[in-house]
Write the C-alpha cells for this entry.
Amino acid sequence: MLRRHGVYMRREVVVLEDIVKIYRSGSVETPALRGISLKIYEGEFIAIMGPSGSGKTTLLNIMGLLDKPTSGRVYIDGIEVSKLNSGEIARIRNYKIGFVFQSFNLINRLTVLENIEIPLIPRGIPRPKRIQMATNALIRAAGDPSWLPKKPNQLSGGQQQRVAIARAIVGEPPILLADEPTGNLDMASSRIVVKTFQELNKTGSTIVVITHNPEVANCTEKIYVLRDGRLIGEVSPDPSKCILNM
Amino acid sequence: MFLLFLIDIFRMAVKVLTERKTRAILTIAGIALGPFALVMISSVIDGYGDYIVSQVQGLGQNTIVVFPSGNNKLTENDLNNIRSIPGVKRAEPFYSIQGQVKVGTETKIVFIYAIPPDLVFESISGLELEKGSIPSETEYLKAIIGHKIAYTDDGSVAYDLGDVLTITYLKSVNGRNEVKRVSVVVNGVVKEFGGAFVLSPDLTIILPLEAGQRLLGLSDWSGIYILAENSNVVQDIVREIQSRYRGVVDVVSFQSIANVINSVVGAVNFISFAASLSSFAVAVAGVASTMITSVIERTREIGVLKALGFRDREVLIMILAESIIMSIIGGVIGITLGMIGSHILASTGVTIRAGPQAEIVIKAPPKITVFGILRATILTLMVGIAGGVFPAYRASKIPPAVALRYE
C-alpha cells in the first residue's frame, strides 16, 4: 500500500464513527450494527466479510447513504452527512459514490448505453458528452464498447455486472461500493469482475467489496470481519487464495 | 440545465409507456373519453344555440310585441299611450290569425297578419321582396306572401303576381267556430327567409291593416307591434309597458326571447359540462390505478435511480411525466375525435315539432371555440396530474434501501 501512497497524507474518503443501527418493528428492536468505527482511505481496496445476518449490507447501505444510522456519524469525502436533507444526500451519492449490486440492477428496457448514462442525468450533462463518458466508462470496465446499443438481457451475467460497474464509475466517484458483486455469478465471470475491480483500483479507485466468498476477499488489500453487528478484526488477505490465482 | 433534465425525463417516461403498450393505450383511451364528450357535446349545443339566437335576432332586434292577456282588449288609447313612451319609433296595431292555403297539391298552415306592411319590412332587416310591391293602406285585398306559399316544395310557381289566393280559416262567432274563406290578390312575394323560429316569414301572408276588419271580419286587435329606436332602449320600453299595464298585457321582444334562449343554452351547456366532468373523474381513477401499478412494479428500479443520485423531486417529476404524457396524448386524441364527432352529430340536425305540420329542423355547424378547446385541454392535463401525483409522491418517498430490497 505504501508503495503507492508513499509519504503523502492519505485522504479519508469514508469515516464511520460509532455507528449503531437498530431496526424497529413495532415494539421489537433488532440491533443490526452495534457501534462501528472505520476509516477508509483514498485508493484502498477493502473487503468486508461476515456470515449472513452479521450486518454487512446494513453497513454498506449506511456508507452509501442509502440508509441512516440510528446513532453515530458518517463522513463522506470529509462531509458530515447527518444534518443534510434527502436532496443533498442524493447529490452526494451522485457525485461521491458508485454502487455495484449483487443482482446488477440494470434497467432492461434501456440500452446498455442508457443504463450507464443514468448517474449523469441529474447532473444535467448534455447527451453527446454523456455518450462519450459512458463509452469511456464501458471501455474501462469491460474493454468492449460494442455492447452499448444492446439491451442488458442480451448479455451474460458477467457482462451485465461489468456494465453495472461502468455505470458505477461513469461519474468518476471517489468511492465504489459493491454488495456481493459475484454473488450471482459463476467462477469464470466472478474472476473477470474481480479482475476489473483490481484494475480500477490500480488506476486510483477506492473500492469496498462486501462478500462472504473468501476467494474474492483474498484478492483485496485488507479484510474487515463483521460478526453480530461488530467489527471483530482486520485480516491480511492471502493472495494465493485469491480467485485469480487458483 | 433543468430543461435538459426534463427532456431526458420525458424520453425515459416514453420508454416506460411503450414498454407497457396495452396498459398505456387503455389508460389513454379512458383519458380521451372526457375531452371527446366535452368538445363534441358543448360545441354542438353552442352551435345550435347560436343558430337559434341569430334566427330570433334576425326577426328584429328592435321589435316589441304587446298582446292583450286574458279577456282584455287593446284600444286606440293604449296605442297612443304606447306611442308616447320615450324610445318608441313606431307603434301599430295588428290582427293575426292562422289559416290554410293550398300550395300546389299540398295544404299548408300559414300565418296571416293584417298590419301596415312597411313596418314589418322596416323592423325585420333580412326581409326583402323578391318581386311585386308593398300594397298601400287602402288596398286591403292585396297580399304579400311568403316564399313557401308562392312556390311548392319542389320549386315550381304556385302563385304569381296578380293570382288569386284563397285562405281558409276558422273564426269564432258567438262561441262557435265557423269555417271562413277569403280570397286575396298576390301583390308581392317575399324572398326566401330560411330557418326561422318563433314565427316563419316564409309561411306568412301580410295584408294591410284594414284587411283585418274588412276582409277577415276581426273586431279586436291581436296586439300592438312596436319598433324601438334602437336595441339599447328595448329593455327600457318593455319595462315601461309592463309597469303601465301590469297584468293586462304580455310583452314580448325578440331580444328577450334571445336572452331566454341564451340562458337556456347556457344551462344545458353547463349540465353537459358537469356530466362530462364525471368522465374526467373516472379518468383520474384510471390514471391513478395505472400509475400505482406501474410504480409498484418498478419499486426496485426507483431504488436504483435513487442510489445513483436521483433526488426525491426528480423521481416525482419522472413518474408524473408518464401520466402527463398519457394525458397529453389522450387529450389530443379526444379533442380531435370530439371535433370530428361534433360535425357528424351536428349534421344530423334536431327536429322540433310544434304540431303535426309545424316542424322546425335545426341544422347548424358546431361552434368550436378556443375556450372550449382550452377548457378540455386544461381539464385533461389536470387528469394526468391528479392521477399521477399520488403515485409519484409515494414513489419519491420510498427509502432507497427499502426499494432496493423489494422483490
